[in-house]
Write a structure and sequence with these properties.
The complex is a heterodimer of chains A (about 110) and B (about 110). Chain A has strands at about 1-5, 10-15, 20, 25, 30-40, 45-50, 55-60, 65-70, 75-80, 85-95, 100-105, 105-110. Chain A is globular and about 45 Å long. Chain A has no helices and 12 strands. Chain B is built from no helices and 11 strands. Classes of the chains: A mainly beta (about 110), B mainly beta (about 110).
Chain lengths: ~110, ~110
């Protein structure tokens, strides 16, 4: 069994300040972990993924995430928020033979001017 | 490449009506998935397929059926729609190399059941 907990349902930051979106996971197998972003009324776009290589993963648009096995965490960060980052972010775990994804409930990021 | 496409984009049904949602991918992916997205709940897996002619149940399969007659297509059917099936439906496809995979999502279908 696998599960994902996104610790904040809403995060609000000012433009130019750092972003931290928190995610904890549980998985019986060696998981792959992903962050997806969804802009209003749009589909999901992959930001980055962890697949047991480097624990610090860099993604698109300046985002990165660090896999910490001891803490079962995969937090998403960005040094400086931009207005275009306002969206909903999903932490996702994948494992098992069919590579089923389990989604967290999402974190809505608001960027204030 | 068009990637993953979904037809239709929007649909309104009356309770008890039936419909089929079509998902198509042109990336030659073996795995295909159907999810539903409801407010505050993230995406939940309805059914999935690990290859042509195979299907399996996901987390929330009740009230839905699927078919994968061709590798590139994955159909989701609602035989008798209910208001609880009002949702946004996403299709995804992926390939598994043995080390890594990525699911690619379609744009979604917004379904309202009255």
């Amino acid at each position: 069994a696998q599960s994902v907990t996104q610790l904040d349902s809403h995060v609000s930051v000012s433009e130019g300040t750092p972003v931290l979106l928190r995610c904890n996971y549980s998985s019986s197998y060696s998981p792959s972990l992903f962050w997806y972003v969804q802009h209003p009324n749009k589909g999901l776009q992959l930001l980055l993924k962890y697949t047991s290589a480097a624990t610090l993963v860099k993604g698109i648009n300046g985002f990165e995430a660090e896999f910490k096995k001891s803490e079962t965490s995969f937090h998403l960060t960005k040094p400086s928020a931009h207005m275009s980052d306002a969206a909903e972010y999903f932490c996702v775990v994948s494992s098992g033979s069919a590579r089923q994804l389990t989604f967290g409930s999402g974190t809505q990021l608001t960027v204030l001017p | 490449n068009a990637g993953v496409t979904q037809t239709p984009k929007f649909r309104v049904l009356k309770t008890g009506q039936s419909m089929t949602l079509l998902c198509a991918q042109d990336m030659n992916h073996e795995y295909m998935y159907w999810y539903r997205q409801d407010p505050g709940m993230g995406l939940r897996l309805i059914h999935y397929s690990v290859g042509e002619g195979t299907t399996a149940k996901g987390e929330v399969p009740d009230g839905y059926n699927v078919s994968r007659l061709k590798k590139q297509n994955f159909l989701l059917g609602l035989e008798s729609a209910a208001p609880s099936q009002t949702s946004v439906y996403f299709c995804a496809s992926s390939y598994w190399t043995g080390r890594t995979d990525t699911q690619y999502f379609g744009p979604g279908t917004r379904l309202t059941v009255l």
